[in-house]
User: Fold this.
Amino acid sequence: MLDLPTVLLADELLDKAFGRAAKATIAKGPDRATRQKNLAATRVQIAGHTLESSLRAYVKGFPSLDRLPPFYRELVDILVDSGKLKKHLGAVDWASGTCADLTRSAVRRIGKEAARHSLRLRKEAFGRLASVVGQIAGDLEGLVAARTALRRLPVVDPDIPTIVVAGYPNVGKSAFVRAASSGRPKIADYPFTTKRVSIGHFERGARRYQVLDTPGLLDRPMEARNRIERQAVNALAHLADVVLFILDPTGTAGYPLEDQLRLLDSVRATFPDTPVVVVATKADLAGEETPYPQMSSVTGDGVQVALDLALAAVTSRAPASGPR
Ligand SMILES: Nc1nc2c(ncn2[C@@H]2O[C@H](COP(=O)(O)OP(=O)(O)O)[C@@H](O)[C@H]2O)c(=O)[nH]1
Ligand SMILES: [Mg+2]
Assistant:
């Protein structure tokens, strides 16, 4: 979801900058001495500019965490220490400016001094640039790690209405998301658990909706959650316009109906501002009676009705009362 710049480590960045500089082999000038000075100045300029602009692009390319949608902000907070990230970006910004200053003064000196000093001055400038980049080597490593973590965020659209599916394991949540989706649900990494989130889309008229299956988060009593999982649930609360709670009254999931109803209460308490719609699934199999509408993801019966009920709950909600 986040389009982040590729960040090079210190050595890679220096290789790139000095490699580009080395490609400059001829410089203009009326005589040999001037050409020698110009070549040294050009090399310093190329190396310095490459470093300055690459580092500046890293700083600009990282999203301002404050401007992310709340769902992502909450997840980013789990994945990276935003205080550290700010420090890394600050250091890289400093290095970018310092490379620019060093380059300017080195080029000026090469211009002022005799041609026989050009080579030495160029080497000194390269040494200083390398030293500046070396000082932020750890910060670049931090950015590379943050980028790796942030790229694993699930691609959800925080702006389209979202149905979040809940219920015990094996009740048929994934089967429902598949049955409800017009295409194949996308499977995305779910950074805070070993599970993977699946995201399906469907249309009603001109409007697009997404259905989200979040294994490991809304399939167990909330008390069993660790801090990170609780934060992930909080992130979901920003996203969910409605929770569709799936009951399996057939016993095939291995959880008694009584336990499932207790989880339902817990989910309701977790999302006090979000409507929760309940459906009973696996209607193609024999099961206990429940007062809830029935569906089967195998035959497809009742799947559209379940979606309609969920959407009716979304649209009837007063927009100002939501967690957004
Ligand atoms: N007969 C029947 N089986 C279903 C239905 N929905 C899911 N299942 C089966 O129940 C098992 C668990 O389904 P799954 O979607 O993986 O459950 P999840 O853990 O809640 O995501 C799988 O073997 C599915 O094929 C249904 O409507 N009818
Ligand atoms: Mg599943």
